[in-house]
Structures are given as C-alpha cells and as structure tokens.
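Exercise 7.
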Amino acid sequence: MAPRNSERQRSRLVWTLSAAQGGVVSRRQLLDAGFTAEAIKHRARIGRLHRKARGVYAVGRPDISRHGQLWVAVLANGAGAVVSHETGCELYGVRRPERGPIEVSVPTCSPRRHAGMRVHNRRILVPANVTGHCGVPVTTLPLTLIDTALRWSERHVEAAVNQADALDLLDPEAMRSALDRFVGQPGVRPLRHLLDGHTFRLTDSELERMFLRLVRGVGLTNPETQRYAGSWRVDFLWPDLGLVVETDSLRYHRTPAQQARDYRRDQAHQLAGLYPLRFTHFQIARERAHVVRLVRRTAERLSGRRFAGLVGQDNPNQRTVAAP
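Solution. The predicted structure, written as tokens, is:
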C-alpha cells in the first residue's frame, strides 16, 4: 500500500504543478517529484504525458492553451528563462497576440534551439528585472516595453503605454522614472522621448511666464490669470474675446474621472458664452508654433480682426523650437 500511496502523492503533485503551468511540466520537475526516467518514458508511451518540446510534457491530454504554450517555452529553456519582448507585451495585454515565434529571454548564453521559439541571451535578467504575470515568468513591464520600442512605430509604442496605463499596470510617471535604471539599453531613447510628452510639467510660474511670452508675440493683450469664470477657476482668460485657455499636465488629467471633470468644465464655459482652448504643458514648452497658431486664429475668429503672426508660423512643416 505504501508504494501505491507514494505514487498517488507523486501524481497529485504533478497534477497540481501542471495546473499552475498551463497543463505542462518539465522532465526536471517530474524527476524532482520522484518519478524515475523509466516511469516518465512509460507514461509517455501510454499517453499520460505528451511531449511538447525537449524535456517538456503536457499532462493528461495533448492540447494546451496559449498559457500552456508560454510555459512550454519557459520550461524548455531552462532555469531563469522568462517570456519577453513582443510575447511579453501579449502576456501583459498591452498588445494583441500575433502569429510568430514565442520570445523568451535567458540569463546565460544557451545553445538550445526550439521550433517556434526565439531565444534572447540577456545579462540584464537580474531579479529586479523579472516578475510574474498571470502566473508566467516575464520581464518587468518597463523592460518589456524597452525591448519592443525600437521595433514598433511611435504610434504603436504609445498605444501600448496607454493600454498599460488603462489596465493599471504602470502609469507613465512610474514608467518614465523606471527608464533611469536602463540607461544605455537599446529602446530607452525613443520611449523616453514619448513619455516626456506624457509626464512633462512646468511650475505655475514657469507656465504663466512662457505662455504670456507666446501670446505677446501674437499681439494679444495680457490675459487675466488664475481667476474664476463662473464656478470654475481658469488658467488664462480674455474677457473681451470670451476666450479661455486651460493648461493640462497629463499626469493630472489622465484618468476617466479627471477627463470627465475637464469635459464638464469646458461645457460650462461654452454655456457661459466662452470659447475654451486646452493645451498640455509639453505643447506650450516644446510645440510653441502650434500653440501660437491656434491661439491667434481663434482670437481672429472671436474678434473679427487679424493679429500678428510670427514669420513661418503657418507652415505646418516648420520645425518646432524647443523651450529656452
């Protein structure tokens, strides 16, 4: 009876382990559970184990889910292997699954080659840069996005960052801060450029000083600042034009609740006969041509007269001048 009970315990252990790994286990795990090499071969012959890759078996039935396929790739590549790159983005849910090899990173140079897998040898796989998501070992989200930033267009990278934010996986500020740990890593530069636009914030005095300098170039009178229009405090107001300009730091205007409040604010301005314009701090500091052009054209429409335009301001191909 003892051997039978021991075998039952071993089987229960393997079933429990495979349930957590998408229905698969490694040969090493089977040996650690107490199965002999001959017992593993016997179970493979009678259909209790189904080989999915070298040293990796599906338990009970050959069909496995995508979750199981990811675990096959991890187990097949040995200790320390984790899902990474575009497959990591798929696992996090910031990019839809696409056909192609499963990408895995390993901490040491590995001679192993497996069909349907792409293996990356990475010295950067220290404990701080690996985690688990949905039960699967994976590179941390900042490193995963860094690894894909050079492959994708800026539009696709931004979509992934926004999706990560929407899923509450990582907000842009934390992502931008995390980049400082990966200086020199390929992919950091384009991701930093993108995130700077999401996290950039001027102080109130810097913002006011910079914006007033822009509107003086148009020929507008100085606006009233930080005063109430109805029940809302506004950043800049021209009472004679009925023009309101609000300035947003994206870190404070990102959540659905914050955005809903902005909509209500703009709608209240419109009901009061005011025309609201909204710019980010980043636009005022780094996209000054666009800000000046929009303010000037709006002021002309509201007043019925023309204002001064800086040379080349209407050229959509003009290069934006960085803030001093």
